[in-house]
């Protein structure tokens, strides 16, 4: 009998190889054929078929489906699958796609979605809407949810206060393990997911924390104060999300208490919400260094244009500076055109070496690994790497130039390449460190300055040495 | 009475503003003065003072302290604080710093550290050692730990099998909530931290999962099969860590079961271990795109040199190609030196625009947002952004050139800038997408190719147009 039941239970559980084969490819991305089928059913206006296609998907995959479809199909899809549009789908959606969709939905529909969500997700849903739309949605909510969301919105964006969820378990310290279990069994409105219980004093300040696994392994009579851990990472409510992400990562936290300036417990942050921030913050450096702004493929073209063109114009300015340096040597170039042929090489070597060092420094600064305590050591390390790189690349280009042009020009370009590589190593550490000391994000502006330095030094060292060595005399 | 007790408990709990003031600055980094004090006490050989200084630190901060100290001081510190060298310190250490230190410790000392760790951390401790050292340490371990570590080492690096911990709770499906709680209270060797319980069938295949919070809120008589969730994300044991990190992020997982090819439960992965991978994988793109390899400031200089010089040489090759194109126009340049002065500007604009688009594409590919289903749409989007950028920057440089040189040269440089910006937009999407289709990491090699394309096109379009328009005639 027991065996029969087991087999029945097993039957619907597919073997692992075949799992996810209809909608997802081997890298867990939605298959193009699946997207095409959805697209087709939307174009035919067949809402029933659309629903049947989408229904087996995980909410996170439904969110991906919205992002992969063309903007004009997204509204049609939302209408076809209204009751699959759970809070989980909404919270997994890309910001731009979500805002675009939410703006198109009536306030009552948005409110009914917001009501199913934890505070933090509900806030995310409406925080970027314009004030009138936000007000209309808030008015549809019941007073308790509205108060929670309004209170979250009162904290600045990207702070712990904005991100935290208010739903949590906080109990007084005189309880035993058994009391706590009984308390939780009696409560109807516990948070959906929680991983630890906070023990608070009579002023509602957290004095300890207790992982659920510790509670489950203890006999009922043990006092909570014997199980709980007193040392805990408390997150001040105004802390920036980047800092929050670093704490979660550094201390391997699953959840943490958020406290006000008096140390009173206001809410909690859980790692499933922070994981997105960790990934965003780590991934944005590549985008920032290239001057690509948010760098989101769902960003409207207008926004992408404005954020990128600023940096292109800034770089145009640095390119003009390099041109000034070249123009100072125009007589020399007119005499020896080989200089014009070779000069971009020296600038290019320096640019690449500078970008390498800068990427390393920016990452180390972001991870709090490059601090006042070791800046000098790291600078010296980078100069040594630069000398090795410069010697290698300088020798190669020097030999090639000596063969094609003249030995003297080979010596000049090799020397210029070494000078520029070392300059690049210095600038690649110094520029981001200086921006960091000035409390600026080193990823944002370093690139323009490092390129300017290596371009100018590249042209100046090469052309200047060529003139000094009498090659154009 | 209760109040008195409360106050006593509160006394040692510091107000939040003063917290961490002795060792950590406001950004949670170790203060330079603190590092100096430790450095000084190490130089004086005062092990007692060193111990007293380090003792209040969190293990993650002790790990940071090792990384910030000079390599020759790290051994001295380890000797001074032996009993603070917990598994947590070791697992938080940077790979290079850890390997360097572990190699210096005797096998028995390493074994005694390994024994306190979960399998996954113990594996991390010894996986990079050479086979003889690894063998010596394994021989010191008790047979059970040794078997677990050897089994983990049998999976390739960076797979789920290497990363997973074997310690987990798996129970048969016929238990009730009460049975499970009793079972956990009786067990002595439960894992240190766990967040969910796996329900397995008689072949040890996971059929459901149960968060601890669900267990705690249910009455004892409820069967586990009524509480558990059947749908779960199972991680195949050979899955690559990058893929694992994406699943954790996409489905907001706290832990997940790792299964073999027959679907049998082998171990679990928890988000606190995956968070480091998520951050690493997201952050490495900036390093890879710049050709900075691992880009770790703790990497030995020799390794940093070899990983970077390869890319500098590859870039030298592309710079030489650009030089060939210039040399084809040397007669034109000799006649009109202004061309040499201006040509780097066109290449630079294209290079920047290409890097921006490439950074966006690489990030979108890494996040599985750019797939076959939307490549054409994104390509078209980027071309439109490029046309706007090209028109803006082209107009600016065209006007400036027209004023300083001649109107015709202004038209030529503006046209060349627009052509190169659009080329950059195309290449910035196409190159990473092609590498991705060829199953190569688009972050690694795209940069060299995109720069080559924009450099060559920049010089060719500008010099070619100048000649075609008769400016050098």
Mind explaining what this structure looks like?
- Chains A, B: Residues 1-31 are annotated as: Disordered.
- Chains A, B: This is Magnesium transporter MgtE.
- Chains A, B: GO terms for molecular function: magnesium ion transmembrane transporter activity; metal ion binding.
- Chains A, B: It is found in: Cell membrane; Membrane.
- Chains A, B: It is a multi-pass membrane protein.
- Two copies of one chain form a homodimer.
- Chain A is mainly α and 473 residues long.
- Chain A folds into three domains: 15-158, MgtE N-terminal domain-like (MgtE N-terminal fold, Alpha Horseshoe), CATH 1.25.60; 170-290, CBS-domain (Roll), CATH 3.10.580.10; 301-468, Tetracycline Repressor, domain 2.
- The first copy, chain A, is built from 23 helices and six strands.
- Chain A has a three-stranded mixed beta sheet with strand order 1-2-3. The first copy, chain A, has a three-stranded mixed beta sheet with strand order 4-5-6.
- In chain A, helix 9 (119-126) crosses helix 11 and helix 17 (271-290) runs antiparallel to helix 20 (338-366).
- The first copy, chain A, is globular, with a radius of gyration of 30 Å.
- The N and C termini of chain A lie far apart (102 Å).
- Mean pLDDT of chain A is 88; it is low at 1-18.
- The interface between A and B is large, with 156 and 157 residues.
Q: Report the CATH C-level class of the largest domain in chain A.
A: Mainly Alpha
Question: Quick one: which chains have the greatest interface?
Answer: A-B, 156 and 157 residues
Radius of gyration of chain A: 30 Å
* Poorly predicted spans of chain A: 1-18
CATH superfamily of the largest domain in chain A: SLC41 divalent cation transporters, integral membrane domain
Number of domains of chain A: 3
Order of helices and strands of chain A: HHHHHHHHHHHHEHEEHHEHEEHHHHHHH
Strand pairing plus helix content of chain A: what structural class?
mainly alpha
Mean pLDDT of chain A: 88
Total helical elements of chain A? 23
CATH topology of the largest domain in chain A: Tetracycline Repressor, domain 2
Strand order within the widest beta sheet of chain A = 1-2-3
Could you tell me the number of beta strands of chain A? 6
CATH architecture descriptor of the largest domain in chain A: Orthogonal Bundle
Distance between the ends of chain A: 102 Å
Q: Helical proportion of chain A?
A: 55-70%
The biggest beta sheet of chain A, please?
3 strands, mixed
Quaternary organisation? homodimer
